[in-house]
Design a protein that fits this description.
The structure holds two protein chains of two kinds.
Chain A: E1 2-6, H1 10-21, E2 25-30, H2 35-39, E3 53-56, H3 62-67, E4 75-78, H4 83-95, E5 101-105, H5 109-117, E6 121-123, H6 125-143
Parallel strand pairs in A: 1-2, 1-4, 2-3, 4-5, 5-6
Chain B: E1 2-6, H1 10-21, E2 25-30, H2 33-43, E3 47-49, H3 55-60, E4 68-71, H4 76-88, E5 94-98, H5 105-110, E6 116-117, H6 119-130, E7 136-142, E8 147-153, E9 174-181, E10 184-186, E11 199-204, H7 209-216
Parallel strand pairs in B: 1-2, 1-4, 2-3, 4-5, 5-6
Antiparallel strand pairs in B: 7-8, 8-11, 9-10, 9-11
Classes of the chains: A alpha/beta, B alpha/beta.
């Protein structure tokens, strides 16, 4: 598969390396040329030597998206540090370039949920953290003998 | 009307003030704390602090009962999504979005955010009107109808002066609708002979401008540009 990842921060670069290791074609697009270095963390050869592609540009620029290969992308991942950017460019990938699989990272749980219902595949790290924290607290509570029966419900 | 204005920059602040003077109910939302405090000194309870990208901020401002949402922040993504959510989630009837970078207009169109207003585009339009390139002026864009009306001055080298309208090979999707000559306008017939100094009006499908420029433009010039 050809996977285009826009936003090459901690999340984007890790997913990029993982997908490249699994044998996919991976192209990254980021505004910051320095983010290329993050891609190569832990790699023995350069990103390009391993078959990866890296383009400098903004996700809203059509030329940059095309240069990064959006027209042949099977998967589009929006993982910049801005929710709004991710939501907008994901919709561009869906509507203008008809990328079959589009995934957007959205930190705001309310909007992640609403856009998910509108047909955009969203991944919400905040929601994951909330669920894990609540789960951990519940687990601790059940080990301590269940909810405190004497507590008043607010 | 109840109108929510997002972004208390120069545009948003002045807009909110004007709307209040016209007796509309207005909430101006600003995400920058310092800017909010400045604007709040004048507009008081009509200003609300928060990031309008977040749904709860819009809901706190009463978006459910808003008749209109105007997004004029300095960030195009914000403006697009605020309007998208206003219309599609909260069913606000009327939205207006500001385009900061004219190159982003295509994205507003793609998401169906209309109307969108770009100061740069407006000034360019005015400039085109004042300094027409090849004498071609955009008079009107009928976006819904997918038609444009343009005006063009036939210069001294125009390749159509002295020719019959009936002999012109007008590009498909374009129609000559009137000729202004010595201050008088008339609808041309096939026998009308075009003269230097004529101003012609044509209606055309979007994207036909270049063909028209070539047809009416100066001899020995590809038209382009």
């Amino acid at each position: 598969m050809f996977i285009l990842i826009v936003g090459c921060g901690r999340v984007g670069s890790s997913v990029a390396r993982g997908m490249l290791r699994e044998g996919h074609e991976v192209s990254c697009l980021d505004e910051d040329p320095e983010s290329h270095a993050r891609l190569e963390v832990g790699l023995e050869r350069s990103w390009e030597d391993l078959g990866g592609q890296f383009t400098v540009g903004a996700g809203l620029e059509s030329e940059a998206l095309v240069a990064a290969g959006i027209e042949k992308a099977d998967v589009f991942i929006a993982s910049t540090d801005g929710d709004n950017t991710n939501i907008v460019i994901s919709q561009i990938a869906q509507r203008r370039y008809q990328v079959p699989t589009v995934i957007a990272r959205v930190l705001d749980p309310l909007r992640a949920e609403w856009y998910q219902r509108q047909g955009l595949h969203t991944v919400c790290p905040t929601r994951v953290a909330i669920d894990m924290l609540e789960g951990a607290v519940r687990e601790a509570g059940s080990r301590a003998g269940g909810p405190d029966e004497t507590a008043e419900v607010a | 009307m109840y109108i929510i204005v997002v972004g208390a920059g120069k545009v948003g602040w002045n807009l909110a003030r004007e709307l209040l003077e016209k007796d509309h109910e207005v909430t101006l939302i600003e995400a920058d704390r310092r800017r909010y405090l400045t604007v709040e000194q004048e507009l008081e309870h009509n200003v609300s602090y928060g990031d309008a990208s977040e749904l709860w901020v819009l809901e706190r401002a009463g978006i459910q009962r808003a008749d209109m949402v105007i997004a004029v922040t300095g960030d195009d993504e914000d403006n697009m999504l605020i309007c998208q959510v206003a219309r599609e989630k909260y069913l606000v009837e009327q939205i207006i979005a500001r385009v900061n970078n004219p190159r982003n207009r295509q994205h507003f169109d793609l998401l169906g955010i209309k109307p969108s207003v770009s100061a740069t585009d407006l000034i360019l339009r005015l400039l085109e009107h004042e300094v027409p390139e090849y004498g071609l002026v955009h008079l009107l864009d009928l976006q819904e109808e997918q038609l444009e009306i343009i005006e063009m001055l036939l210069g001294e080298n125009s390749r159509v002066t002295g020719r019959r309208v009936g002999d012109l090979r007008m590009p498909e999707g374009s129609l000559l609708i009137s000729v202004l000559r010595s201050g008088k306008g008339f609808v041309p017939t096939a026998d009308t002979v075009l003269e230097q100094g004529d101003e012609i009006l044509a209606v055309l499908d979007p994207g036909k401008e270049d063909e028209l420029k070539t047809l009416f433009g100066p001899e020995g010039n590809g038209g382009g540009g």
